[in-house]
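Give me C-alpha cells for this 382-residue protein.
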Amino acid sequence: MQTFVAGSTQVSSEVTSESRQLPPLPASRITSNLRQTSFAGMISECPHMQRAFSIVERVARTDSTVLILGESGTGKELIARAIHRLSCRTGKLVPVNCGAIPEEILESELFGHEKGSFTGAIASKVGRFQLADGGTIFLDEIGEMSPKLQVKLLRVLQERKVEPVGSTKTIDVNVRVIAATNKDLREEVKAGRFREDLYYRLQVVPIDLVPLRARGNDILVLAKHFMSRCCENLARPVLEIGAAVQEKFKAYSWPGNVRELENLIERLAILCDGPSLELRDLPDYLLQGNASCAVVEIGEELPADGVDFNALVDRFETRLITMALNRTSGNKKAAARLLQLNRTTLVEKIKKKSLTQFMEVSSESSSDAAEASPRDYLTAKE
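Here you go.
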C-alpha cells in the first residue's frame, strides 16, 4: 500500500478502517500544513495549487458537493481523499470510476439491485451509495456518465435517497458527493451530452487543478521528491538530476502531468547506472519533443522536416504568459508589465488560451485574492 506524506500527516492511497477512525485535525495543524509545500500528499510551491489546498481546508468541514476539475494525472483523487480525510464524516470513502464501468453495470454498482431484477442477478446487491453511507462517494470521470444515469444521479443528489434496480422502495443515504472530470462540463452541457441541472448540482464548490506545465518550479520540486522516494525504496543512493536534464524537464509539456513525471522518475531510478541523471538516460520522446523549440530559440537552422510554426509560437507564448503569472502570483497587471503588454491584451490572451487557473485571480493585488471567497478562486465563468 502506497502512502503519501504531507508534513507529519499521512494520507493512504487505500481506505482503511483505521483511517476512518482518526480524529479530526485541529485547524491550527491544517493551517501549519498549508504554510509548507506539502498538503495531503501533494507537494507544490505554486500559488494556484496553494489556493486549491485552501479550498480543500474550507470545504472539508462541510457536507457540500464538490466538483474537481483538471487534466488526467493532476491529482483529482488525492484531492478527494484529502477532503474526506479532513472531514468529520465517520463513514468510508468509496471511489467509483464512471468511465471504466459499462453503463448496464454502473447503475447496479451505484444503486444496488434486487435478486432477479435482471438476467444474472442471482442475489441482491448493495450499491456504492449505500456502502458510502455516513461517508463520501467519489464519482471519478463523471463526464463519461450516460444521460440515463445522469437522471438517476440528479434525483439522488436532490432527495438523498437511492432506489435499487428492480425495487420499488427507496433507501435514505447520508453521503457526501465528490465528483471529478477531465472534461469541460460547460462545453458538454452546450453539446447536449451532460445535463445542465446536474452540472449545477455538482459544482456547488468547484476546485480547478492546474496542469503540471503551469506549475513552474513544481516540476523540479516533484522530480527530486519522487527521486528521493524511489531511491530509498530501491536501497540505493539518491540520484542527482543533472542541469541539462532539469532544463529538459522544464521545457517538456508533461501531457500526463504528475502521474507521468512520477512514473518516469521511477523508471530512471531503476535503469540509471551512474550517480546522476544525464541526457543519455532520458527517453527519446523527451529529448526529441523539445528539439525543434531549442533550435528555434537559439537561432540555428530549422530541422530538416520543418516545424509546426503556429503550434510552436502558441506553446512559447503560453509558456511566457504562465511564467509571468506564476512569478507575480497571478497578478495580471504586474505580469503584463513583465511581458511589456497592455493588461487588457494579456487578459484576452489568457481567455483565448483557456488558462482558467489565472482568470479569477485578482489582477491588482495579492491581498484582494486573499480576501476573495473560495468560489472566486476557481473558474473564470462562475
